[in-house]
## 1
Amino acid sequence: MNEHSNIVPVRQPDEIDDPLTNILRSGARQLLAQAVEMEAEAFLAAMKGLKRPDGRDRLVRHGHGPVRTIQTGIGAVEVARVKIRDRAVTSDGERIRFTSAILPLWARRTKSLDALLPVLYLRGISTGDFQEALAALLGKDAPNLSPGVVSRLTTEWQLEYERWQKRDLSARRYVYVWADGVFLQARMEDHSECMLVLIGATPEGKKELIGFQVGVRESTQSWHELLVEAKTRGLKIAPEIAVGDGALGFWKALDEVFPATRHQRCWVHKTANILNKVAVSVQASMKKDLREVYLASNRASAEVAIDVFAEKYGAKYDKAVECLTKDRDAMLAFYEFPAEHWDHLRTTNPIESVFATVRHRTVRTKGSLSSTTAKLMVFKLLCAASKTWRRLKGTNQLPNVSAGVRFENGIEVIQVPENHAA
């Protein structure tokens, strides 16, 4: 006899009925399980030559570990790690252990979520509110992002930051550097902290984070301390050129620590400064004319474009013209380097892009957290962003200038010594 029921299941208010999300999570679970299995099989295949005295394999599968929930960008995904057993013990009592690179032993979140936490904090969300903020994305309760977990994470980040601050730079050389000071309202404090950031590009074209610390505004002393600290840890060779905005503090400190380094002012900052001195109705036309300067095919054409700009706007907008012409040499210094790198050297974009969504945060949030926490959050944000920084374009990297090579309008020129016989 068939039984009929009038009971209809009711979906709870905090549950999300989204078939697409369920499909994605199911697919992610299957793919992750397959990847873990393949990793274990590859490890066993590499160790196939290891045998016991009786001829049997020394390393064998030994089931799975407990099912673990991993927090990912599409919610919680369950997975179990593969266990591998070493059936032989060496004379020193050591065993071969298998450690999954895909699924580390104590992992509870994907690395992308750890990188997301600093962004949330700098956008004004208190650490105690992370669970609530991510509930819709990660599912109810988000168990691995509790305030206690976040607190432990910041402790780990502090140790990581201290190790990073002490690293040796004697084997490093940076041909280009980008510098900027980022202002962030430090929670419930009455003043703004300035995060001083220094990025460098190696001769191979890779961009790296050189220095980072909290400074007093963008003062010469703060920048001087950051540059001296990098030099003390082994950065002896001066960069060929430094890119930054018009903050005088950095340029004065640079001349004191690395006097041979050329100055290149950021065109994004300079354009904004110039346009702020004219009426809105003129800004579109003026911005187009400024593009004719920094996108010119060579320095001579850029010089002509500046003269045209001065003649066109000098009578009515003399302050805007003066803002451009007073830094003429520093605005066009990039023309003396490889043409492939001009896009990189015109602006401080490597730093600007990292803080595009958080640098103007002004909302006060509950919880009196120190600037030390903000510093660690910014540090982790920079570390995560460094993995996505573009390499310098092209294969024509900056050569050793002392070897008699220089650039004119981006073209390599070989210098011949005066006493060289014809």
## 2
Amino acid sequence: MKWIRERDALIAQTLAFVQSVTGRKDDVLQPEAPAYGPAVAMEIVTVEAVTVEIEPPQAPLPPRPAPLPTRTSGEFRAEMQARIANFRKHQERFEREREEYCAATLTKLRAAIRDASGPPAEK
């Protein structure tokens, strides 16, 4: 039953800590005295927080990237027009390839239907 005494001691220590932090005693949080054993002597330890500043090791700074060249509005406009023209050519090529594929597929389909039908059967 040693764990019960250790648990009760921990609860009492925690309550004492809470009371020391809040600066008031709360009757609701007081544990009832155990009816089955002697009281356990406890020592309250004060803990201080210590702030330590640690300087990171001085690593060489990475080189800065070259600044982007400034563009005039005319250069920006010309670049955008070139990109749009390139995009349109790309889309036109896709559309042309789709049309060619569709025409080739329909030609094959029509040929297959024509070959499969053959001459009409006589009754």
